Amino acid sequence: MSKLRMGIIGVGGIAETRHIPAYLHLQDIVEVTAVCDVNRVRAEEVANKFDIATVFENYQDIFPVVDAVTICTPNKFHAEIAVRALEAGIHVLCEKPMAMTTQEAEVMLAASEKSGKLLSIAYHYRFVESVQLAKKTMNEVGDPLVTRVQAMRRRKVPGWGVFTNKEMQGGGSLIDWGCHLLDAALWMLDKRKPIEVSGQTYNRLSKTPNQINEWGTFDHHTFDVDDHVTAYIRFDDHSTILFECSWAANIKEDTTQISISGVDGGLQVFPFESYTPKHGAFTTSSAYVQDDQHQAGILQAKNFIESCLGHAELVNKPEESLQVTQLIDAIYKSSTSGRSVRIQ
Questions:
Q1: Using one digit for the tens of pLDDT, what is the confidence trace for 4-14?
Q2: For residue 279, what pLDDT is reported?
Q3: Which of 102, 139, 154, 233 shows the greatest Cβ crowding within 10 Å of its Cβ?
Q4: Closest to 187 measured CA to CA, from 329, 12, 34, 319
Q5: How far is 256 from 192, CA to CA, in rounded Å?
Q6: pLDDT by residue (tens digit) across 300-325?
Q7: Is the model's pTM score more than 0.90?
Q8: Cα–chain-centroid distance for residue 100?
C-alpha cells in the first residue's frame, strides 16, 4: 500500500497532541512531510520535536509536497484554507467545527464535490468506543423519541489560545465543546432532519470578575463568547433533542452524556448501558469499554487516510458536519432573536 503524504496547517495544541501523534502511529500508511504555521519559530519547534522535514509559513506553499492536509488553525481560517486546498487537488481533514457559518461550510462542501477530493471534519467522538457501540445498538432502541445531550464542564473555560475570542472562533462552549456531543448524537440518530431550533446562550458568569477557573486565566472584560448554552431541537419525525453545554457551570462535577429514549428501548452512552423490556421484565445491559480519546484520534486518522487511498469510506462525511454547523447557527440566531428558528 502506498503512503499518503500529509501536511499539517496550524501547529497548536490539537496538532501536537492528537493529529501528529496519530499519524506517527500509522507510519505504514502515512508520512507527515511538512508543517505550516504563521509562527515559523513554533512550526520549527514542532517539526524538530516530531522529526518532520519541511516547514512553511504560507499554507499554499505546502500543497505541492502533500496529498492531504490537516487544518488545525483557529476556526476563522477553516473555510479559506480548506477551499484553497481542495481546489489544488488536496484532500482535507479539518478540525471541528467545519466553519464559522453555514454559508462557509456550504462553500467547503461545494469545493469538495467539484474537486473530487475528500473533505472530512474531525469530530473524533464518532470513534470513541461507547459511541460506536451505541450506534450499533440503535436497532434495539427503535424509533427515537427524546435524545438528551449534555456536554457540561465545571469552571473550565480554556484560558489559552483564542478560545474566548469571538472574531477568531465564532463562539465559545457550543462551537468548541458542545458540537462534539451534538455531532455524535446526530450520527446515532441517522439522517433525521431537524426542522426547528430554540436556543439560549449565556456568558454572565465569565464576564464577572474574580472567577475560579481550573483551566488557566482569561480576561473577563474582553470575554465575548458563550460559556453556557441550552437548546431544544425538533425533527421532522417529531423526535426531539434536549441539549445543554457549558465551560463554566456551577455544578457538582463535569458531565458528558448522550441518552436516547425510543419506542422499543433506550440507551445511555457514558458509561454505555442499554435498557430493553424483554421476557416480561425491564432489563439493563452494560459493557466494559475504555473510551480512550487517544485511540479515537488514531481511528479517525486511519479512516481518513484509508479513505484518501481508496480503501475505506469516510465515517465523518462533510454533509453531516454541515448539518451540525446549521444547528449551531440556528442556536445562536435563536438566542439573539429570542425566537425559534426554522431550518430549511
A1: 999 999 999 99
A2: 83
A3: 233
A4: 319
A5: 23
A6: 999 999 999 999 999 999 999 999 99
A7: yes
A8: 13
